[in-house]
Amino acid sequence: MYGWAGKRLRVNLTTGEITSEPLSYEYRRKWIGGRGFNSEVIYREVPPGLDPYDPEARVCFGVGPVSGSAAPSTGRVTVTCKSPLTGGHGDGNMGGHWGAELKYAGWDQIILQGRSPKPVYLWIDDDQVEIRDAGHLWGKFPREADQMIKEELGDEDIHTVLIGPAGENMVRFACTFNDVWRAAGRTGTGGVIGSKNLKAIAVRGSGTVKVADPKKLMDVCDRLRQAFKTDVMKQGLFDFGSLCLINVANRDGWFPWKNFQEGAHPKADNMSGETHSKTVLKHREGCYACPVCCGRFTQIKDGKWAGEEFGGPEYEHAVPTGPRVGILEDANDIWHNARLTNDYGMDGIECGGTIAAAMEWYEKGLITTKETGGIELEWGNEEVVDKLIPMIARREGFGDILADGADRAADKLGLGDKGHYYSITTRGMTLPGDDPRGLGFGYGLSFAVGTRGGCDHLRSLCCLELSGALYPGLNTKLLGDERANRPVTKVGKPYMVYYEENQKTTTDCLNVCCFTTHWCYAVLTPDQVEYLNAVTGLDFSEEEYQEIGERIYNLERAYWNLHLSGAREDVVPERFLKEPMPQGVEYQTNVGAVFPLTDLLQKYYEYRDWDPKTGFPSEQKLKDLGLDYVARDLAPLRAKYLSDAEKKKKKYYV
Amino acid sequence: MAVMTQTQAKRFLEMEDRMIDILNFLRDKGIMDAQTHRKILLGGYFRLVEYLQGKKILTGKQADESLTGGFDVLIKHLAA
Amino acid sequence: MANRKALVYNQEKCTGCRSCVVGCSLYHDGECGKVLSRVAVVRNERFGESFVVGCDACSDAPCVAVCPTGACHMDVEAGIAKIDAEKCIGCKECAMACPFGAINMHYKTGKAFKCDLCEGRPEGPVCADWCPGGAITYTTTDIAFKAKRREKLTERLQAAKIGEEV
After folding, report:
1. Interchain CB distance below 8 Å, A225 and C35
2. I want to staple A615 with a disulfide (CB 3.0 to 4.6 A). Which of A116, A356, A436, A566 is the partner?
3. Domain C57-100: assigned CATH number
């Protein structure tokens, strides 16, 4: 078989049963792989009413037909579950090399279910799969556990998936790593894995990816890799990592200062990629087969955190426990905090976002030291953040309240709507470090409707409004309007989000890195179809390929609808709609901006063919996409969603 | 070839996001069927220009101009 | 010798991405995988280090010296040892003799295989062509060593802040 391994691994951790399930041609053609396979499984096997931490809940790891091949950036893995943070569809995507190794071991997907009676880890050595004791690994940081597993198995070259202590303690935004530092950050997959008493998945693969047309694949890869050599965006990412965005964010007013009270700060350059590269950059890192190599490895050289080192950080990992909580003076504090969220195994975005919400509650007098157990939650107080991150991971004291995310914390503390105003979430998930009043009207729209729970730049990653200007003519070619390449404009944004969401979905199915197709636009859809066909020997047309993206996106949306989450929950935190962007620096470009969600949302529903009253995909759309079973599932719920009883419920999460 | 009036063109020109509106208009006029509508919506603006050129609604020159100029140019070529 | 091209490895620039590995296997065997690659990348995840292991085109190659059948022989023209698969008996002596671990045994044939500088590829070796960081370059050793020396000098100049005064 070309491309795919042709089978998936199902492990029942309650019974210890390990099964290999073949993946039929029809299944692979309909869902492609990676996120497609995962979303299909979660929709069917984790119904409403099942708690994400229930032993019967699933967590899936999916790679795609080109994973492990020579196409650009093929190491990625999608991790999918019902999210403990939002209650709806949840997934994360992580780079690194584990995904390629899984494919070489002969697996397209892993489905985990059940709960082991004691801590264990999985060892996959090609088709030999074993459940091994992990009592000695429990409680360890990923970098420690990784080393211990490699020593135990006698092979430094294996690859591991790991969770940290936060996952073990079922923090609702615990994350999953592979190769120690590459994180599937969002939606709390780490806690689901921890709830099953699983610490790690070690993989060794001695196989290869079979290629139907090697000459064709070689030609496509040569062409694409040549294109990356002269790509402007690639150069910025290679040189400075995703932190290359800091000064851009600051100028365009989307730099998250103090929970998005402001969008720019005079000292932003303290943590820019340029500064990072001159002070703490130890090593540039590349995921499997990647021509971009935007990964960083950081080593703090001086000050109170001297000697600490870790893989990362990304822009999105650094800003939440940095400027978003008011820390910017000493960049080493920011790197240290990123190291902490890595070691403890939590989504930096959600962790920082939750602390920032709590700081704003404290600032506004909604909570006092009485609720925080004596902790003075002042903006910019590094001592507090340094203390709080481990407390959250260990669920200690006030940390235990924050460990459930900002919206549940607001409810637990009895803060009402006022508290929720500052939680900066949609569907219970917090915003990444992109203020919609700056980046941008497309991103903002995708925050409202994203199928991971809203506030999620990676559902559309509509960089046509970020890096689009670096590719003259691209916005015209795809959307028909070059003016869409500016972030603070409504022009073309509904179509941009529709197009980019579909595109990103297919990218996640092949399981290649979206930085090759969004941000760097060196690879476009026709290129992906070309290398997909060269590897698999099949004849996907662009239309079929794009339709699959739309299919999976609608399936994920329907999963929310099953949980009675729809149009009323398609919101963006009110701060961005109501509070005009203040001036943070004199060269800031978006002073006064607010985000006009309503203007964009209705048009977006037209593109999607979703009923604007319910936010459910139309029955016809579902049928056109081969989702008849989904149409049947949703039929009785359409009226229910519109009932008075449902309308009265305020659903910050489900 | 003209497929819309100046008034209709003016309306489209003033819109901030018009891909689906123009596709709906062309479908309702019988210029494209539902299948093509879906394909072009998924595929992007350049697919629309390609299709209209294939249907001889745009000349080669008009298609080239539309590919570089976007909707503002395309709409003018489609108007009477 | 100085004018013949060889693969030159600049380890500080290696990002550990394995683009070289996957390109090599595809080019030579039409499949993608580390087990088929004539170049290898070693990574340490915990400490963020990686380096590339490729054929160093020894002028007095140990792999040639130990081969009992003459399968591994020096191609004087190309300036690199090559393995004639037909003569190879799969004894693994060459793989063990190589000081760098740059020779492997093929999982299908059981025979030794090694870098051949992508004989026949107009653009030169895939690994050097695809390396995003410049860790592998295909150049004359003359140019490579001069560049390396100048790198050191540039570093020292910066350290002495002579650049700033200018």
Report:
1. no
2. A566
3. 3.30.70.20
Nearest CB to C46 within list A143, A238, A282 = A143
- Alpha carbon dihedral C48, C52, C53, C59, in 10-degree steps, equals -140
The token pair that represents C104 in the structure block = 């492997």
Task: Pick from B15, B16, B23 the residue to mutate for testing the A interface (most A CBs within 10 Å).
Answer: B16
Residue C6 DSSP class: E
Q: Domain-by-domain residue ranges, chain B?
A: 6-78
With vertex at residue A132, the alpha carbon angle to CA A346 and CA A136, rounded to the nearest 5 degrees, is 60
In terms of domains, do A21 and A68 share one? yes
Q: Percent of chain C having pLDDT more than 70? A: 95
pLDDT tier at C164 (50, 70, 90 boundaries)? low
One-letter amino acid of A195: S
Q: Report yes or no: A136 and A147 within 8 Å, Cβ to Cβ.
A: no
CA distance B70 to B74: 6
Q: Say what the ipTM of the complex is.
A: 0.98
DSSP secondary structure string for all residues of C60-73:
T-HHHHH-SSS-EE
Residues A300-306: what's their mean pLDDT?
Answer: 97
Q: Provide the mean pLDDT of chain B.
A: 97
Averaged over A638-646, what is the pLDDT?
Answer: 95
CB pair distance less than 8 Å for A477 and B67:
yes
Domain boundaries, chain C: 57-100
What is the spatial distance between Cα A315 and Cα A295, in angstroms, rounded to a whole number?
A: 11
A133 and A237 share one domain: no
Distance (Å, rounded) from C-alpha B19 to C-alpha A481? 10
Mean pLDDT of A300-309: 97
Statement: residue A10 has pLDDT above 50: yes
Q: CB A221 to CB C23 under 8 A?
A: yes
Determine, yes or no, domain membership for A517.
yes
**What are A522-566's pLDDT values in tens digits?**
999 999 999 999 999 999 999 999 999 999 999 999 999 999 999
Which A residues, 268 through 297, put their C-beta within 8 Å of a C-beta on chain C? 282-293, 295, 297
Say whether both A45 and A164 belong to one domain.
yes
Predicted confidence (pLDDT) at residue C3 exceeds the cutoff of 80: no
Q: How many domains does chain A have?
A: 3
The beta-carbon neighbor of A311 closest among C25, C48, C107 is C48
Q: Do chains A and B touch (3 or more CB pairs under 8 A)?
A: yes
Quick check: A646 and A563 in contact, CB under 8 A?
A: no
Q: What is the mean pLDDT of chain A?
A: 97
Whether B49 shows a pLDDT value over 50: the answer reads yes
> Which chain A residues are within 8 Å of C47, Cβ to Cβ?
309
Same domain, A71 and A140: yes
Cα torsion through A628, A631, A636, A637, rounded to 10: 150
CATH code of the domain covering residue A123: 3.60.9.10
Residue in A100, A146, A214 closest to C30 by CB: A214
Based on the domain organization, do A63 and A136 belong to the same domain? yes
Q: What is the mean pLDDT of residues A218-226?
A: 98
Query: What are the pLDDT digits (tens) for C55-93?
Result: 999 999 999 999 999 999 999 989 999 999 999 999 999
Note whether A285 and C16 are within 8 A (CB).
Answer: yes
What distance in Å separates the CA atoms of residue A647 and residue A568, rounded to the nearest whole number? 8
Alpha-carbon torsion (A567, A568, A573, A574), positive or negative: positive
Q: Which domain holds residue A545?
A: 441-521+541-627
Residue A383 has pLDDT above 60, yes or no: yes
Q: What average pLDDT does range A8-34 have in this prediction?
A: 98
On whether both A265 and A409 belong to a single domain, the answer is yes
Whole-number percent of chain A with pLDDT over 70 = 100
A 10 A CB-CB count for A115 gives 17
Residues A188 and A57 in one domain: yes
A392 shares a domain with A308: yes
